[in-house]
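Contributing new records

If you add data, match the layout below exactly. Sequence lines come first and carry their own label; structure lines follow with theirs. Keep one chain per record. Anything else will be rejected by the validation script.
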Amino acid sequence: MNDFGVRDVDVVVIGAGQAGLSGAYHLRRAGFEPDRDFVVLDHAPKPGGAWQFRWPSLTYGKVHGMHALPGMELTGAAAERPSSEVIGAYFTAYEDAFGLRVHRPVDVRAVREGADGRLLVATSEGAYATRALINATGTWDRPFWPRHPGQETFQGRQLHTADYPGPEAFAGQRVIVVGGGASGTQHLMEIAEVAADTTWVTRRPPVFREGPFDEDAGREAVGKVEERVRLGLPPRSVVSVTGLPLNDAVRAARARGVLDRLPMFDRITEHGVVWDDGRAVEADVILWATGFRPVIGHLAPLRLREPGGGIRLDGTKAVRDERVHLVGYGPSASTIGANRAGRSAVREIKRLLDRERSPELSLR
């Protein structure tokens, strides 16, 4: 700690989900010591990242593409257990096994330029002066609510995936599910089992993916997301370019008509939604499964955004500031992508710090 009460570290990691823990693991492997050379800050009350907030009916067997953290496999998890419990326990064991000493709950309020070429990270537990930053804040805390005419007049209930309690809360009700992603289809199929009626509304016709999702298809999907980030545009999710997997449950739901989709409505009324062609659907609940946006507001003082609205990256490194790395953002938002991004970020940060300590290296 310096004379101004600011703690000095080489690296601050913001977020202890999949991407943040991956970054912390690779920092340890590279010889950085927790609470001396780096610190991990997490605003959540306990380990588990965003998984701890998932609804109880999202069991581990339903999880799409959960990839193990580096250095420790997730084994023996029962498919019927809630994913929040399984992954929360796994992350707890992981933090303990590698002694990552995550600080929580800690809110990061802002990251701005500090003194002597360092970044100043203002938090609820004080300030940190750091040579490099791994931002792994994900998207869960920033649910996206589209605005539609008449939305404030609806007399029923409106909620977002972030507040989804499970299907039992919708028993006997008429429910409109808005959104064509994985969460929207999962919510819809669950709710249809207990609701009086369901209606599925999406902006674009959903694309269902036949056959296995192999390595080549994965690389192609990540490449499409990566291109947007390279151009400085807001990232789209990987699943938005992969399509929805067509499994037995989805086939059965399509056969029953549960997944018969309607185009986006034009207005919301007191009792439901209407289209300009005169069609109308009454509802008790509108569930917005409309996704999330990256949580990067605390980085605003650094002015990293491009005119297109996103942060342009070279790998994980912000083009406008080589000290800042974003993991779990854009192409690394998948669980396997987050693992790779953590390793890549630490490799680049080590080069940066080595160059600072030995300036002659930068001349070679």
